[in-house]
Amino acid sequence: MSAAGKFHLITDWRIDAPREAVWRALMTPEEWPQWWRAVASVEHIGDGDGNGVGAVRRMTWRTALPYRLTFTMRMTRVEPMSLIEGRAEGELAGIGRWTLSGDGARTNVRYEWIVDVAKPWQRLLAPLLRPVFTWNHNKVMQWGQEGLARKLGGGRS
Q: How far is CA 49 from CA 37, 76, 85, 87, in A?
């Protein structure tokens, strides 16, 4: 795909919860629809190894705009308690990477999303609508931060 449809988005969360709790929540995507309003469904397709590498899930996301996205995510790298990385294929294609840090009662979470849009209308309109697509991503991630903070009984900053 052309560079016009490529996005490199970075989101930072600060969650008032221990890293272990945040890690458990992020490592169980099948539960995301319970606390992340943008996640319509997560279907477990295949198991991975003991750390989860190789696990495959089909994810459908609602967005703040009037469309949904579905793609498969294969976990490609896991460093327990610090990094989860996966490769998306489908309506979005690329890499998603969670990085966790912090000790004690607060966890810093960074999500890096390096993807190409796949729908023809998205590729066509990406140069014009890049700010709108970026806003949409940021809104979806805000919902995730708020939902995770509620789930874990903490706040966000």
A: 29, 11, 14, 16
* Global confidence as pTM: 0.90
The answer for residues whose C-beta is within 8 angstroms of residue 72's C-beta and 6 or more apart is 45, 56, 57, 58, 59, 88, 89, 90
R_g of the chain computed on alpha carbons: 15
Q: Compute mean pLDDT per 10 residues along the chain, 157 residues long, and list them.
A: 75 96 97 98 96 97 92 97 97 95 93 88 79 93 97 68
Tally: H helices and E strands in the chain: 3, 7
Name every residue whose Cβ is closer than 8 Å to that of residue 68 and which is 6 or more positions away in sequence: 40, 60, 61, 62
